[in-house]
Amino acid sequence: MDEEEVKSYIRAGEIAARVRDFAEKIAKPGMKILDLAELVEKKIVELGGKPAFPCNISINQEAAHRTPIIGDELIVPENSVVKIDLGVHVDGYIADTAVTVSFNPRYEPLLDAVREALDKALKIVSPGVKFSEVGKIVEDTLRSHGYKPIKNLSGHSLDRFIIHAGESIPNYYERISFSRFKPNRAYAIEPFGTDGKGFVVESDTITIHALWKTGKVKGLTLDERKLFNTIRQRFKTLPFTERWLQDVFERDVERLRKTMEKLLSKKIIFGYPILVEAGNGMVAQFEHTILVLDKEVIVTTKLK
Ligand code: MN
Ligand code: MN
Known about the structure:
This protein is an alpha+beta fold and 304 residues long. The protein has six helices and 14 strands.
């Protein structure tokens, strides 16, 4: 990894950290999640980055993958627990970070447990450390406070323009996992804790999409071609939302949604369903991005 790449990762991390702290401050019950997401995404651009994926605002039992749709009227409920997960890229180098905000004192201990799990995990990472060590410390910490990790959500390696670059860092102790942290690589560490069953299921709602691949495709109508080309140019294979494509058909939302449906059925794009805790448990998540170098580990999304 050369100096320029390291610089871009660090720059993306600083922007992500500042925007995350901003989002944590402004999120309030009664606020439209649409306004919150747009303020977050605008701030990323103001600070010189680009969103690496739509701002996720997942509420209570939802663990991940909700972003507001065009005209979304959903508000942050009273007494809710809100996960704000955001991504920033600088020249394709990504920072992925998340915070949970609780408007219900009953869930403060859950948030504290997940925060502690992430802190402890970050402390043990260095080149050569097994991913299973992170899983163990996350699971042990959460269980010591009476909570469970969500087993089918995990941290991940990052690569240029790729959020899930192939390696998964479990949030529970997996004895048969022998992968280790390698130097000159970026990873996201993201424990999810719950008082529910400890795994998520897919809901029927999809608000985030991505291209399967950027290569040539045949047999598209003019509208489909136009939308495909725009997605490819703007986002490559990074996740996107319909909100970011409103200009393509002169703000004709119906035409945009119909064309997206077509690209979905032709398997050119795919959707990320909203993930919900299987036992209807409450969910908290905290996430940082780290850069593992030969002689040090930098938490890019922590402000100094
Ligand atoms: Mn994330
Ligand atoms: Mn992540």
